Amino acid sequence: MKILLVEDQAMAAEYVAKGLREQGMVVDVAANGPDGLHYLLTADYDLAILDVMLPGLNGWDILETARKAGRQTTVMFLTARDDVEDRVRGLELGADDYLVKPFSFSELLARIRVIQRRQAEPQAPEKTVLHVADLELDLLKHQVHRQGKRLDLTPKEFTLLSLLMRRSGEVLSRIVIAEQVWDMHFDSGTNVVDVAIRRLRTKVDDPFDVKLLHTIRGAGYVMELRE
User: Which fold has domain 129-223?
Assistant: First the structure.
């Protein structure tokens, strides 16, 4: 397993890298954000372990930049930032795991083993046609139908609907929707998400008896069929 470790504390980096190498893993170490991003963008890794507070570029920005560049490397945050908001932010940016310092090496290793097993499992091909009840979205043809009737959506509405349908049954916050659809950090003073949901609802829900797009007060929105 090839791992990138981005950690500016020399002793911590040496401790983790030494332990992983003793387990037969190949480890590259970067001591600052820009170097870590360079490694992540130019080499292939099975796992990147990122601190958050780094010189030059923080871990959030490293991950966000890498994802925008199309890098799907598995990422774990290893950081002293233990607030719930920080953990949520890391996971919503696309991290696969989040471990808070101080940590035990055995726990870190156990989590890496879980990632190894998950990567070894055969991946099912991604669905190109999504369904929620009688609503159908074809990702390849870029078409949406409900009850056999084609719905005319704008590109942003299509992207928004595909996100909601991919994660059907999951409540998505306005922050997640804003970042995934508009690539923007959510500003509580803007209602762009609510307006877009309202417009989407007029096309996929209002003309039909059964409603699929639901508002969860104080939490966000969910696409699902309710009995």
Answer: Arc Repressor Mutant, subunit A (1.10.10)
Mention every residue, 6+ apart, whose C-beta is less than 8 A from residue 124. Answer: none
Fold of 2-116: Rossmann fold (3.40.50)
**87 or 13, which is more confident:** 13
Neighbours of 77 (CB within 10 A): 25
For residue 138, the model assigns a pLDDT of: 94
Which residue carries 């890794």 as its tokens? Answer: 45
Question: Residue 189: its pLDDT value, please?
Answer: 55
Q: How confident is the model at residue 190 (pLDDT cuts 50, 70, 90)?
A: low
Cβ-proximal residues to 148 (8 Å cutoff; 6+ apart), any chain: none
Q: List the beta strands (DSSP E) in the chain.
A: 2-6, 26-30, 47-50, 75-79, 97-100, 129-132, 135-138, 143-146, 149-151, 213-216, 220-223
The residue with tokens 């199309």 is 70
How far is Cα 71 from Cα 87, in angstroms, rounded to an integer?
Answer: 21
